[in-house]
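Fold Annotation — chain and its backbone
Next Lines — sequence and tokenised fold

***
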Amino acid sequence: MAQPAFEDIVADFAFLDDWEDRYRHLIDLGRAMPAMDAAVKVPATKVEGCASQVWLLPRLTPTQMGFAGDSDAMIVRGLIAVLHALYDGVPLDQVAKVDAGAELARLGLDQHLSAQRSNGVRAMVDRIRALAAG
């Protein structure tokens, strides 16, 4: 079972009738995220493999996953918000077991993202898993 915040997003997506509304909701999720300070948007936090500029800053506790994220693209900021909802608070030893592809498919994102954005999401998931692994 995914985190409650992710389940809320699944419910919201199920309620929305069409993909234009879902994209707007995704953008709203991105807008609601706090922006990262420019001082931490450095090569060490940049995610390679994304067409847009993407940064993930780890905020791990000794036992749980946490991160801040930002992007220069609004839809990508929304995708970061979705990944944050999926992974935030997950025990570090469970992060690699989260089937991000299956969870995102519940939102229909597997069928509605461009190949470039899908590759970017995979790169972000890989970074999140690497952060959790230490």
Summary: The chain is about 50% helix and 5% strand. The first strand starts at residue 54 and ends at 58. The two ends are 24 Å apart (CA to CA).
